[in-house]
Amino acid sequence: MIPSLISWSLKNRYIVLLMAIGLLVWGFINVQKNPIDAIPDLSENQVIVFTEWMGRSPQIIEDQVTYPLVSNLQGIPKVKNIRGTSMFGMSFVYVIFEDATDIYWARTRVLERLNYAQRLLPDGVTPSLGPDGTGVGHVFWYTLDAKNMDLGEQRALQDWYIKLALQTVPGVAEVASFGGFEKQYQLVLDPVKLQFYNVSLMDVMNKVKAGNNDVGGRKFEMSDMAYIIRGLGYVKNKNDLESISVGNYNGIPVRVKDIGTVQMGGDLRLGIFDENGDGEVVGGIVVMRYGENADRVIAAIKEKMKEVEKGLPSGVQFKTAYDRSELIQAAIGNIKTKLIEEMAVVAIIVIIFLFHWRSALSIIIQIPITIAVSFILLNAFGLSSNIMSLTGIALAIGVIVDNGIIMSENAYRHLADYQQEHTPKT
């Protein structure tokens, strides 16, 4: 079969050349489409269900949240395993699907089950799905260089401006904020005054919650004009919060400031983020969506950050903490360098030893065609270009060159022998 294939190729050189050009063009198109990343995604195909119930012990979380969720998520099609983790105030349920399962189909199936399982959970406890990313989806980290702002202001800037802007970038699943603290109004109550005015802690919580809300109204007409009346009740400062009535004592309203004080503070923090020992910082982690091109996503993030930076306060700028595109460009640069080096070495060796430029050209042509076919196969099997796959291609170039040199030398020797045998002797 092989001799007949070689014979057919020699007789139909132009067809073989067109096929080679077609493979090269097809491979070039697949190179543009193939997702590029530095780290191969070997994580499991999973959907994370996160539930928060602050102040509860791990045992209560396990009994009332994790166990009901795990029990009701059983039986979803194409599920391999379900793992549950309970900790103080939080529950994590990992639903592991088969590798060939579409991740977004899996998320819809889990969401359907969560709608049913919601009735089995305590009041006020709502499970939510994690971002549609993978274990290696954190492609870009950044921090804020803002020496003139405190950590609370930096965190507010990150949560309510920067994060919302970066989440609009195509391919970004989530921007997780870290560092600093979230500002909040804190009520410091005096237990003696609570007892004196006969006001319970639950009364204070309910009254403050009810007082921090808009009141609906209605429309009425007067003098051929229509008016809409509504009550604006959202808290804007400490004075508004201190003026909320929480009870009644002998016909006199008892306000928040009568039973305690109101102060501005930070929410509970379980840790801090320090940058190289220079102090605490605030920043964000950009998580890429499943199956996206990491190189393109990072490039789009950097372009968006240039736009966002224009709206930042004076003296505030971004600092890159982790950029995976550096590894990606290093991997791509390595294979480009190896490709050029091998092509040059082959040309020099073949021309020096054989004095035949066509043999060198035939070997050089094999290298880009083989790489093109490699990317066609990568896309066909749903694999990305990463350090491992690109390193394999770089190693394969050497094998291609060795085989090409051996085949060219063998063909050259047979042609020389043939010419010598059929040359007329004088």
State the low-pLDDT regions, or none.
none
- CATH class of the largest domain reads Mainly Alpha
First-to-last CA distance: 40 Å
User: Which secondary-structure class do the elements indicate?
Assistant: alpha+beta
Radius of gyration: 34 Å
Encode the helix/strand succession as letters.
HHEHEEHEEHEEHHEEHEEHEEHEHHH
User: Strand fraction band?
Assistant: 15-25%
Describe the structure.
The protein is of the alpha+beta class and 426 residues long. The protein folds into three domains: 2-37 and 328-421, Multidrug efflux transporter AcrB transmembrane fold, CATH 1.20.1640; 44-133, Alpha-Beta Plaits; 183-266, Multidrug efflux transporter AcrB TolC docking domain, DN and DC subdomains. Helices cover 50% and strands 22% of the residues. The protein has helices at residues 2-11, 13-33, 58-73, 103-117, 151-166, 191-196, 201-211, 238-242, 256-259, 294-310, 325-354, 357-380, 387-422, and strands at 46-52, 79-87, 90-97, 128-129, 138-145, 172-178, 183-189, 215-222, 225-231, 245-249, 252-255, 260-266, 283-288, 317-323. The strands form five sheets. The chain has a four-stranded antiparallel sheet with strand order 2-3-1-4, covered by helices on one side. A four-stranded antiparallel sheet has the order 6-13-5-14. A hairpin with a 2-residue loop joins β10 and β11. 21% of the residues are buried. The mean pLDDT is 87.
